[in-house]
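## tool: complex_structure
## caller: assistant
## args:
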Amino acid sequence: MPSVKQELITLLPRLRRYAYTLTGSRDDGDELVQSACERALQKGGKRGDAPLDRWLMRVTRNLWVDGHRAHARRGETGVDADAPDMGFDGERALRSATMLEQVRTHVAQLPQAQRDVLALVAVEGYSYREAADQLDIPVGTIMSRLARARATLADQLQQDKRPPTAH
Amino acid sequence: MQAMTDELLSAYLDGELDAARRADVETAIAGNPDTARRLAALREADELTREAFAAPATETVPDALLDHIAGTQQTTRPAWRHLPAWLMPSAPVPTALAGLAAGIVLMLILPFVPLSGGTPADNPEAPMQPRPLLARALNTTPSQQLFSHAGLTVAPLNTFRTPAGQICREYQARSSAQGVMTGIACRHGDSGWHNEIMLSLNKHKRGFTPAAADGGLRNRRKAWRNADMLSRDAERQLLQRWSTQGG
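## result:
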């Protein structure tokens, strides 16, 4: 049986993606992943029956939400404004880096509750049921938050496409 | 037919609708260009979102992160899984110590835990002396194994050498009277084991300690990582010596 640490390392790519979606920043995301892994390793086998990936995501999200509250208390926005250093490969460049950058900005501006659901379902591919269990909210709430998040993003993307001035 | 809400279209994209509602949506898309456009817009938002955050999942994980995780692992015990459930603490000691440094779990410290056989009233300056049974357990029982005698069960978790060269053992103990506690005892030369720290795990809440971005916490963890975890072989040799000389 692989150790928790070995399993954890195989999950790091997904965990980093999840943290990136939550935080909107590569650096903050990695810092969050690091804290979450630390926490998880020190909790040993304390996760009960939960699959390691979902348990780690829960740890990650809890840390993020806690940190976020701390930010809010200090009157900071919590929205990371740094420009992520993106390295796109050829395939990824199908859509322009600029457009994806806009998407990240829009996602970062969504309410935390919507971003939570978007990260789990739209990015990580969990079912509504799984996401509902993960976040301890009803499936109907998952459905409505996801729809609102996508609707907001779709509307903003439409606006982005309209050039502000004619060339 | 009901109006095609964003909610329905969004759930359609996720494959979360039952057959009947899926058919409704498909009929609506076929019959109404506005609905079809809306679905396309939502789909595009969805695909772009996935793409916007995809990079970390396909990249090599940075060495710094891997190194950090490798470092963290030294403070954990790999063999939790075959220990009984009560031995899976909500706060393994490194976390507890970190909390101590941060002043988080001070209230959990039991200054005169009856597990210690010393009498603080007689000599308040004396370090807590574990009662003989605990000392015996620490002298004879390899890490990850159970010592059980007269209502006291002790599981040494690991053995380590502090930067100052002292040998210490992290353990958990359960007694019918005290419940479950965790502690670290260090050997003081010939005078045997002294408890450096003991925490009751009975009331400790499950869940995660707050993500206090506390410098003290990080420093404590760093210090902990500087302790040398002893190998099984090194530990066995020590146990042999201790069992013969007593403690």
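## assistant note: Residues 74-129, 203-222 of chain B have pLDDT under 50 and may be disordered. Chain B touches chain A through 54 residues (CB under 8 Å). Handing back to user.
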